[in-house]
């Protein structure tokens, strides 16, 4: 589970400077600094822009931002669950892609036309 500051650091590395990242996601540098320091979260729309910029799941950044200031334990667990769901979704997608690739690349047997046994005028049973 990453913290909001981790996503901000990834963005700063990509943008070159913290000031440039702030410009790209549409907030003041001072607000970005306070979020990175753990003193405040970011608005949801800014979280989405940051997530898109650093190419991570939007829900994770929104949850990480809310965890900066949330004190209620029940609500914290809800936000923390966003990371688990996101990771299991990624695992599910990876597994689906793997199965699809296996099915596409798996060798197939072609029916041998010489093994057809006529059952009626229009129905044939194929035997290997």
List the helices and strands and how they pair.
Blueprint: H1 4-15, H2 18-25, H3 29-36, H4 44-54, H5 58-69, H6 73-105, E1 116-118, E2 124-126
Antiparallel strand pairs: 1-2
Helix pairs in contact: 1-2, 1-4, 2-3, 4-5, 5-6
Kindly name the structural category.
mainly alpha
Percentage of β-strand residues: under 5%
Major sheet: 2 strands, antiparallel
| DSSP helical segment count | 6
Q: Characterize the quaternary organization of these chains.
A: single chain
Reading the helices and strands in chain order gives HHHHHHEE
Task: Give a summary of the structure in a few sentences.
The chain is mainly α and 128 residues long. The protein is 66% helix and 5% strand.
Structure description:
With 128 residues, this protein is mainly α. It is 66% helix and 5% strand. The protein has a two-stranded antiparallel ribbon. The protein is flat and about 80 Å long. The chain starts with a helix and ends with a strand.
